[in-house]
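We read letters as residues; the fold follows as tokens. Both lines appear below.
***
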Amino acid sequence: MRGPRFGAAVTTVVLAVALVTGSAWLLAWQTLAFALGAAGGVSRSPYGWLFRTAVRPRLGPPTEFEAPEPPRFAQAVGLVFAGLGLVGYTLGPDWLGLAATGAALAAAFLNATFGYCLGCEMYLLLRRLTVRAG
């Protein structure tokens, strides 16, 4: 759990700076980070690599592990919102860039600050709904 939460903290900072500055380049970087996390899992994202190489060696061994599917789904949701934000910042309308980036920032902030992964919870809810339907 520590790695995804660290990634959420870095994501929060990146998205906050992108939102305040309106930087499409910074949002493009975050979109790429989300894409890598969605494709290869959180550990394959740039922030996962940073955690593995710079932070984890200084910590004790983890006491619990999380299934990889919920955080990977959360990365995909982040990718959608960051992608929409990027479209808004580069092609317009501006409100789309602000709203989508703000939504991604809110979700990352919840995870970083409170350990509540909104995308993970969405994944679990969808799984429950599909199991009941099937």
The chain has one domain: 2-133. The two ends are 30 Å apart (CA to CA). The mean pLDDT is 94. The CA atoms of residues 41 and 69 lie 8 Å apart.
